[in-house]
Amino acid sequence: MRFSQPFWLALIALAVLPLWREWTRGRIAWPDLGMFRGGRAGVSPWVWVSRLPALLQALAIAALAVAMARPQTVGGVVRIASQGVAIVVAMDQSSSMSTVDFPADQGSRRISRLEAARETFARFVAGRRDDSIGLTTFANYPDLACPPTLDHRFLIEAADAVRPARPGDDGTNIGDAVAWSLDALRLASPSRKVLILLTDGNNAPAVPNPLDPMRAAELARDLGVTLHTIAIGREGGVTHGVDKSGRLVAAEREGPNFELLDKLAETTGGRSFRATDADALDDVFRTIDAMEKSQIHEEVRTRYDERFAPWAAAALGLLAIDRLLTCGRLRRLP
Question: What is the reported pTM?
């Protein structure tokens, strides 16, 4: 506990005034029959009770002084700023990401590419508590699922909610996804900014006037943003896998454009990675995590909770009891 305004504690010295007044006030000795009983009469209990109001007043003054000094306890610690790295992950959510052909846990099970991306992303976020991280999803149209934030719980919940694109929005619009992510990074406060593009397909937008991916990479370079690319899956061909019901499925796909992804990363000074299973994807994110370390300058503020109310209530209660007593048997003539 601490006191926000401790100088008010000096008022506690005034608590002796009611006691001093009670001790020094004049008294009138009323005649009674005690003198005929000799010394056996003793002191009446009311003599001690009559001093109770003065004690209550002294305690009320002390409690009021403590309340005015504003006692506080530590209510928590708030991290209000961090100068780590601002990172936005642009995650492909095209329908091909739902293909269940991604080996996980050293090949013991198969999961969809999107599921592998979500799980790996969550582990990546958990290891970078001081960095502002955001998430952009894209198929034909990009969408900012979460701006760069230190609220990583909300970010992971947003990533868990990512689902494959609907048929009307299916496609792979890499250029607009990069531009959308750059706009989110532009508003982030850390000076070091990184964009991670994660996709399993070639650039194939089905929207009017899409941004050329190379032009988007040049914009990233001009803004000082490092772009790392991650190609999920193998080169095009027929893929085989099983769906959630265990049925075998096969699909023909184009596969990632490795050459394009290499150029995008090279333009901004970033690196291009490939991952053909969940464990490899984990390794890629660990590599990026090790590459994008920076010195943290964090401001931490302690939050204090006010605890003056019980003391103020105690002072009022003591004064109320004092008034009640002096209105009854302990009432005094002036």
Answer: 0.62
